[in-house]
Amino acid sequence: MKEHIYTIPVTDGFNKGGECPFCDMLKTLEKDSVDYILGPAYMTDTIRLETDKTGFCEKHIKQMYDKQNRLGTALMLSTHLDKINSFLDSEIASYSFVKQKKTFFGKNKETNSNIPSYLNNITNSCYICNRIDTYFERYIETFFYMWSKTPEIKDIVINSKGFCLKHFSMLIEKGETYLSENEYKNFLKIIFTVQQENLKRLKEELEWFINKFDYKYKDEPWKTSEDALIRSITKINSAYVEEKNNDG
Asked: If exposure means fewest CB atoms within 10 Å of the residue's CB, which of 194, 196, 215, 232 is most exposed?
């Protein structure tokens, strides 16, 4: 299949051979996004304006810290704090220290302060999350474009291990938007078959994983089940976990 630069992330996701290619796309995208924000991007005025407004979620600020680029993280948090301090100084200077009266139905009237909504916004927003969402939506569009224009993608999907439940549901919903009626019908037939086969395959692998904890099977080979628990978590919960020793 001839690749273009915009199809590479999609084909790379499928080439990893995991339980969900879209989870693998997201995992790579997340790593690249953290590396991007801690690269030269953090010195760019337009990026800093965005990070000053949104900040970072708990998950991604920890990942940034773990990258050991303390200067880059500190610089972004410094200007982010400047914006927070400026807002709070202005709001607190004009704050009305009056307890809000309750309405007839016992509910508080809407506060006249902008502080709660501002703080709720910046503590529930994240530049990296926003970047991931934007790029991942493009990956989805690219996948469906490839489905319509590149016959080979069908064989790639057929030979894949299917999808996690979250992204399987996403494909069903998004396919109706991106594909024609006939394309959509064919698409559903293929992914339904692939998903059913691979969920049953994974169930068998997980059963053998369980059997290996029974002394009767201790001398039997693991076959393909040694990491079946980890892969089941990805398939069902769209989550990655650290691989541990199989010692119970």
From this structure: 215
For residue 63, what are the CA distances in angstroms to 41, 102, 158, 211? 16, 43, 35, 37
Neighbours of 38 (CB within 10 A): 19
Reported as a pLDDT band with limits 50, 70 and 90, residue 248 is very low
d(CA 230, CA 25): 18
| Contact indicator for 37, 135 with CB cutoff of 8 Å | no
> How far is residue 200 from each of residues 162, 195, 197, measured CA to CA in Å?
11, 9, 5
Residues 206, 229: Cα–Cα separation, whole Å = 6
Using the predicted structure, report yes or no on whether residue 112 has a pLDDT greater than 90. Answer: no
Give the predicted TM-score (pTM) of the model: 0.85
> Tokens for 177?
């938007």
Taking CB atoms within 8 Å and a gap of at least 24, the contacts of 5-9 are: 6/138, 6/142, 7/142, 7/146, 7/150, 9/139, 9/142
Name the pLDDT band for 244 (thresholds 50, 70, 90): low
Q: How far apart are CA 34 and CA 21, in angstroms?
A: 20
